[in-house]
Structures are given as structure tokens and as C-alpha cells.
Please model this.
Amino acid sequence: MFEQTFKNIDDILHKEAGCASELDYTEQTSWLLFLKYLDDLETARATEAELRGAAYTPIIDAAHRWSGWAAPKNAAGKLDHNVALTGPDLIDHVNKVLFPYLEGFKERATGPATIEYKIGEIFGEIRNKFQSGYSLRDAIDAIDELSFGSQAQKHELSHLYEAKIKNMGNAGRNGGEYYTPRPLIRAMIQVVKPRIGEKIYDGAAGSCGFLCEAYDYLLPQAKTVDDRRTLQDRTFYGKEKKSLAYVIGTMNMILHGIDAPNLVHTNTLAEQVLDIQEKDRFDVVLANPPFGGKERPEIQQNFPIKTGETAYLFLQHFIKSLRAGGNAAVVIKNTFLSNTDNASVALRRELLETCNLHTVLDMPGGTFQGAGVKTVVLFFERGEATRKVWYYQLDPGRTLGKTNPLNDADMADFIATQATFANGPNSWSVDASAIDPATCDLTVRNPNAPEAKPLRSPLEILDEIAALDAESAQVLARVRELL
Model:
């Protein structure tokens, strides 16, 4: 049912003049879904309070709740067409009444770690792009058919929302910045093995895929009420610069079950990295920072190693954000391992000297759809210098692409082999003492791969061309004799 409803909403949005791309479709579906989800959440909380004999104060007042403005019902439980707004009246109400009310929650909230504050932030960033009140009414009616009362329903919703984010990622470069293949994220988490009580951080959170997957990984381990409260309040932390990504990331976490995500809308790189204190550090870092960007000189001044490459600044931030003994898994372009510019060499040296870079996972081309670059994942622990680097070259045995994406089975051998750092056809170890101290070159060179035939010299190639020409001349001469 959910899947068909999502398709129906997409069909409505395709015809809506204010929505031109998959990014718009995801954004507009998001705020509608979010308000319906909140309405169901409030209903469930009110029922729980009643069963306990306690009073419940709603987050959103009756007039602004979904059941008040979007889907008012008559005595038979059907949409009350005499009360429900549509056409220009609906657009006016959403733009001039509803959104300003919801945005005002930011000022009225008791603090940033509340769902009220998150509501205010979301509706301060997002805008209604529906121009036709009739299209908006159709979308509202479709979403009103959904119910998020049970855990199974919430689980299905979160998976469909993830699929929507994936489609947005495939729609173009900007969307693609928000989406990391979930099988890769799950493999990274299984290697790092976070535990309840640890603080997990992504300073380039995007749609919060790493934090949501880490929540799904830890939830079965939560055996007590305290464990669940720890997961809700004191485990997942993120920062995101871009408005749409911040909004979608916040909603993604809420739809996964984290009521008030510790997600901050800020430019992570604007923080002076040397000012990071012990209280600001984390036990686990999981991230895929954006690469290829060029940061301005004033941003570069916040880092000891000056570079315009966004990903290199994020890597410095992540190293400094880890507590001693903390673990990280970070996706980065594979050229980081071999670039000879001063910043690359200095950053590799910093990584090797201050952290134990124990694993480098070399990903095949096509892992990130539309990105056109090869990537590696760096796994490291802060506090001890690197002694040995274990490499794994992932080979799924096929060409990855949009119709043939990475899957969990592709990652299984890496996860199993990494547990013991075993050597094999696709894995090998390099002692830190064998790494050139001048360049700190970490290039992926598989010593177990079959040796390529040595290239012939130009002279040999020319000799072969001459021999083939002579042979061709002889054949042509014989043909002439026959004519």
C-alpha cells in the first residue's frame, strides 16, 4: 500500500508546475509525510497517556494539526468536504498560516534537543512549492491514507523514504552528494562495531544514512528502557551545511524512530579545528564527506594543513573529533593515497603518525552512481601510530551501475576477511616501516594480482608493423598475379 501511495504522489508532483526535479519531489513529499507522521505520533502519545491516567499536551495545536487543516473528518470518518480546504484557499492557508506557525516553534521551544525545535528548523528551511491547490489536495488525500501507528508501518515508511532519497541521489550531482550506497554503510558499521553508550558522529551528514543505519544496527542491542533512551538522546550526532540535505536528514532520522535528532545546521568546516575540546569528541566517526569542492581561504585558515580540497579538510576535522581510542570509517577519493602535493603528503603523514590506519578498502568504479571517481574507505583508530595497513580490493565480479548496484552480498567477504586481517587474492598487508617516509605513499598495489605482461619497447612494435606490412604486400602481389 505504501509503495503505491508513493507512486501516486510522484504522479501528482510530475504534473505540478512548481516541482521540476526529483529533489523537489522528495522535498515536497517530505514535509507532507512529516506532518502526517507527527499527527499519528501525537495520537499514539495521547492514547498512551490516557491509559496511564495522565494528561497529554499536544505539540501542535488542534487548528494546525494534520487532522485539523489537511484531513478534517466527519462523523462517519470520511473527509469532510465542507471543511477541507482546496484550490487557492489551501495554498493561502499553507503559505500564510501553517508554515509561519510551524516555523515559530524554533523560538517557542525549550531547547535545541527537542522535537519542537526541530519542527521550527525544518519549516524555517523548507518552502511549499505546490502552486496548484488542487494538486496539493490530491497529494494530501493520498498521504492521509497512510498510517504510521505500528512499528512495522514505520519500518516500511523508513525504507520507502530511503528509496526516495536514493532516487534523488541518482537525479544529479547535488542529489548524489546526499546518498551513499547502504550496503557500503552497513559494511563500514559492521567493521567499526559501535556499542550502546558510544557517541557516533557524522560531520557531513547529508540525508543521515550513516546515523540511521547505525541506529538500526544498535536498536536490537537495546535491552532496557535506559538503553533506548541512550539511543534517542545521547548517541547520534551530525552536522550538515546544505538546507535541503539538513531537512531531509532530520526527517529521515525521525522517520527511523529518533524523535529529536542531534543534527545541527551549520558549516562544519567553519569550526577552528584546533579548538575542538575533549568534551566535543566522539567515540565513532562514520562519514562520506563531499569531495571535489574548493573551500575559500578563510575556511582553510581553520586547519593546520591548508588545502582547498573539501574532503581533506573534513578528514582533518574527523581526526581531531575522535577521542583517544575512538574508531573511524571515512570514504575518500582513491587519489588521496597517491597525490604528491604538499597537503596530501602532510595529511597522510598526520594520519599515519596520530592514528592506527589498520584497513584500506578499495572500492570498484561505479560504486557511486554518476560520480565518475574511484573511492577508498579508510578505517582508523586515534591515539597510536600505524603499525601495519591491511588492504582489501573489492571485486564484485561484475560492472557496477544504476541497474546493477552494490549489494550486501558483495561486501560479505570483506567483512569476514577483515575480522582477522587475512591475506588472500584480494587482500594483503603492508608494514608501516615499508611506507616511504618522504611521500607516505599509500597507493593500492595488490602483490597477489597476476603479473601483467611487460610492455614491449617501441622498437619491437615498429618491427612488427613492418613485418605485417611486408606480409600484406606479398598477399596483394599474389592477388594481382591471379587477375
